[in-house]
Amino acid sequence: MTVSAIVSYDGTDNDADAIALGRLLRRAGAEVSLAYVRHAAEPVEGREVVERQKAARLLHAGAALLGPPEADRHVVLSASTPEGLAMLAADLGTDLIVFGSEYRTPDGHVQAGASAERLLDGGESAIALAPAGMRGWSDTRIGALASVAHDGGEQAQAVATGLAQKLGGEVGAGPEGADVVVLASRPDSPAGHVQLSSAVRGRLDEAMVPVIVLPTGSTLAFSG
Questions:
Q1: Helix axes 13-27, 45-66, angle to 10 degrees
Q2: Sheet holding 170-171, edge to edge
Q3: What three-state secondary structure class fits 130?
Q4: CB-CB contact of 97 with 4 (8 Å)
């Protein structure tokens, strides 16, 4: 079963970081699509046509950054970006939602923005976060990522192992020095929901590489 991922993209540099992470996930075998959330429809038909065209152009530019094969693109109407993305993920049966870091994050660090934070507190999809500046990573650097670490639970270990196999690498002994980190939600939180312990939250806040956060009891089938 192929892992499916949605990259949240609105044309900002930080969302270009998310697309770079999408390229890495593609290398691991994931099917990656792009999504842009519009917060309201325009009441005047002509203006609505213009806004739809702008959204289509924006996602076309994002797809060009992602590269071939051509990605599916989705425009969602929702007053809330996280709610719109969660609704789309539920409709499509998507495993993973990919975000860039918050726009003021220093290069080489990971910090969840407001939309990602909402889904890290009770969301039902795995969440991936790209470090700020990942858009500047060369394809050679992305292709060289090899060490995957995990923190918390059998599911995180299984995902780290499968991801490392897909990337031709190994599972590291710990987050230090890893190229990707997989984190598990609290085991006592509701199954299928994301909820971080203080220790795992600390790992996320200290991260300087891409991070994947799993819902409780859930995995991602990178193996095979």
A1: 50
A2: 73-77, 31-38, 4-8, 96-99, 126-129, 211-214, 180-184, 147-151, 170-171
A3: coil
A4: no
- Write the pLDDT tens digit of every residue in 72-124: 999 999 999 999 999 999 999 999 999 999 999 999 999 999 999 999 999 99
- How far does Cα 144 stand from its chain's mean position? 19
Q: What would the two tokens of residue 126 be?
A: 């795995």
Q: What value does the CA radius of gyration of the chain take, rounded to a whole number of Å?
A: 17
Phi-psi region of 217 (alpha: psi -120 to 50; beta: other; left: phi over 0): left
The domain limits of the chain are 4-214
Between CA 191 and CA 159 the distance in angstroms is 17
pTM of the model: 0.95
Amino acid letter, residue 152: G
Please determine, looking at this structure, whether the domain spanning 4-214 carries the CATH number 3.40.50.12370. yes
Residue 163: closest CA among 211, 98, 110: 211
Amino acid at 210: P
